[in-house]
Design a protein that fits this description.
10-stranded mixed beta sheet, 7-stranded parallel beta sheet, 21 strands, elongated, Acid_Pase_classA_bac, signal
């Protein structure tokens, strides 16, 4: 640290001497030239935040205890799938099954007799089957289904039917948008459920397709991908939790729940073995979506949105309640983490990611430079998940379904052991510790019914996490290597970032910030590009450009509440002006110190000033120093005029 400070002091002194009495080449102004004093970089904020592991048994370490065959004997102590959902006991306390005294259930699935349970699966039939622990949460849970099924649209009815009867893996691929057809072809994925049959109200139709497709060596082009999607289903059964919690389906709680008529033949005739919590469809859809998003992070947010949509269709169908679906999300995420984070599966993950991209690039005629854009090329007319804002709103709504926030608020979010693996391909330029910080700083607030589990699965917001940090603590150092392509070369963080930390951007890739950011520790750009696409993109601290390019594309200009400093050398400021007043300009509340480097003026699509136009591109509380070179796209001559507070450019033909 001391060595770096000495180097910066020597550099600052050298620049000050070089600029003493010097004006900018080609500039004109009446300001008195004075020695240039280079401010120090924003102060170090200390070590970046590290997120500790929760002090409870991790699902990732104990997933093998969650076996379907053990369902009748599963308890909080013996089954990880039951334990991860333990907060449901704050809503509903089920009957306890009693194993014959002194007899231990063996692990091989051959069980002794169980004393007959009095649970019938039919509430309010006069048989005690459990205790409602929170009448508020329970009433809200069932009432939500009553209202959702009453308001069901014809389009939702079709979607709900398809999502019930079709293979969940097939349904989730709709989140791939422009890549859906190519994926299904490569996976050799088929379904027999393509519409609602005219007699579906009386005839049960089962999918005779192959759900996720053909895996293994028999599918040389895509078998590794299919295998990985199937892999996340290991140790993922919802049956032990269903048998333990014994919470009835919503239509058994209230006759006002309108089950989709086409799904009446699918209703179980044995309520005592047909628990509603958690939803199996939801759990499978979530873990499939997570696996596909891992393989194709270019569609990460669209896929996880589709996973949660399938869960909502279970409510709209009248087959499950919000808490059933939320429980499915928790268990689905936990199952995906356990399998993806297992070191034994590292080679399988790598093979699947490589194979998916190679095969889909070949089938879509794209390459590593164009594939990402193609994956996002759909429109709302041909891709249900093309609208980012709608996806974000729907995902957030489906995390809680408006269930009451009755617990303690303001508790920092825990992050499950291994959960950082969920962002491994989406944010490959981050470390595992940084990905854990992203998950923590984008998590849901505490206090929501069911979601305050001890490991933190309930509060994970994967959609928000894909948009980067939610807050900075300490020095957040980002190094991107453009030569590696994909998200190493370019990524966008769209969250509103708070905190007292400092952002340090290095490497050769480009990071774009679009949020209404408020972090206070400052920003230091050392290498690559940092793109400010919103007025408050760089927070409330000082901005220090010691290397690389700062690109300003904000529609209302970039506004800094502190100082702006640009050192000499290869540093560059690129202002992308547009037709909107102030678009692409830089406004600095404090001192803007320009110790050299270049200024490039580019123009947003469809805009170009006329020859002779004069535009103020930088305004500051105090403007000191000069750029070595100033250029403007499409103009052979730009005449700069520096004043004590502004830099104005005259664009000459």
């Amino acid at each position: 640290m001391l060595i770096m400070q000495k180097i910066r002091s020597v550099l600052a002194a050298s620049i000050a001497l070089a600029l003493w009495g010097c004006g900018s080449s080609g500039s004109s102004d009446n300001a008195v030239t004075e020695p240039l004093i280079i401010p120090a970089a924003p102060a170090d904020q200390g070590a970046a935040e590290t997120v500790p592991l929760p002090a409870v048994p991790a699902f990732a370490d104990n997933a093998a205890t969650n076996q379907r065959g053990d369902a009748r004997y599963a308890t909080l102590d013996t089954n990880a799938g039951v334990r991860v959902l333990a907060t449901y006991l704050n809503v509903w306390k089920p009957l306890t099954q009693i194993v014959d005294a002194g007899v231990t259930a063996p692990a091989n699935g051959s069980f002794p007799a169980v004393v007959a349970s009095t649970w019938t699966g039919v509430p309010n039939d006069g048989t005690p089957d459990g205790t409602i622990a929170s009448s508020t949460a329970h009433a809200a849970n069932i009432d939500y289904v009553v209202k959702a099924t009453a308001a069901r649209t014809p389009e939702q009815a079709v979607q709900a039917y398809l999502d019930d009867r079709r293979g969940k893996g097939y349904s989730v691929t709709e989140g791939l948008g422009p890549l859906t057809a190519a994926w299904r072809t490569a996976a050799q994925q088929v379904t027999s459920i393509t519409s609602v049959a005219a007699d579906a109200n009386t005839v049960l139709y089962n999918d005779s397709g192959n759900n996720t497709g053909v895996g293994g060596s028999t599918n040389a082009a895509f078998g590794n991908v299919v295998d990985l999607v199937n892999l996340v289903g290991n140790n993922a059964s919802t049956e032990p939790a269903k048998r333990f919690y014994k919470y009835a389906r919503p239509y058994r709680w209230s006759t006002n729940v309108q089950v989709l008529p086409a799904l009446m033949p699918a209703r179980s005739t044995t309520p005592a073995t047909d628990g509603g919590f958690p939803s199996g469809h939801s759990a499978e859809a979530v873990r499939d979506a997570v696996a596909m998003a891992y393989v194709l992070p270019e569609r990460f947010q669209e896929l996880v949105t589709r996973g949660l949509e399938l869960g909502e269709m279970r409510i709209i169908a009248g087959m499950h309640s919000p808490l059933d679906v939320m429980g499915g999300r928790l268990l689905g995420q936990a199952s995906a983490v356990a399998n993806l984070a297992d070191p034994a599966n590292a080679a399988k993950k790598s093979a699947a990611v490589t194979q998916a991209h190679a095969t889909l690039m070949a089938s879509t005629g794209t390459n590593s430079d164009t594939f990402g854009a193609f994956a996002k090329s759909g429109t709302t007319a041909n891709d249900r998940f093309a609208d980012y804002a709608s996806n974000k709103a729907n995902y957030l709504r489906r995390l809680t379904f408006g269930m009451p926030q009755t617990g303690t608020t303001g508790i920092p979010a825990p992050v499950p052991k291994g959960a950082e693996v969920l962002l491994e391909t989406r944010q490959p330029y981050l470390s595992d510790a940084q990905r854990r910080a992203v998950l923590k700083t984008t998590a849901l607030p505490s206090g929501y019914v069911l979601l305050d589990d001890a490991e933190g699965y309930g509060r994970l917001n994967l959609f928000a996490a894909a948009d980067g940090y939610g807050a900075f603590s300490g020095n957040v150092m980002i190094t991107m290597d453009a030569a590696k392509g994909g998200f190493h070369a370019f990524d966008a963080w769209r969250n509103d970032i708070s905190g007292s930390g400092k952002l340090v951007k290095d490497g050769t890739g480009t990071l774009k910030l679009t949020g209404n950011n408020s972090w206070t520790g400052g920003t230091e750009l050392k290498g690559g590009s940092l793109q400010a696409d919103a007025s408050a993109a760089l927070g409330n601290g000082d901005v220090y450009v010691s290397g690389g390019t700062l690109l300003v594309s904000a529609a209302n200009g970039l506004k800094l509440s502190g100082k702006y400093t640009q050192l000499s050398g290869t540093t560059a400021l690129n202002l992308s002006l547009g037709s909107n007043p102030g678009q692409g300009t830089l406004t600095v509340a404090g001192t803007a110190t320009i110790a050299g480097g270049s200024l490039r003026i580019s123009f947003a699509s469809g805009y170009k000033p006329k020859a002779g136009d004069v535009i103020t591109v930088i305004s500051a509380g105090s403007l000191k120093g000069r750029f070595v070179a100033i250029t403007a796209d499409g103009f052979t001559n730009v005449e700069p005029v520096y004043s004590a507070n502004t830099l104005t450019l005259r664009f000459n033909a």
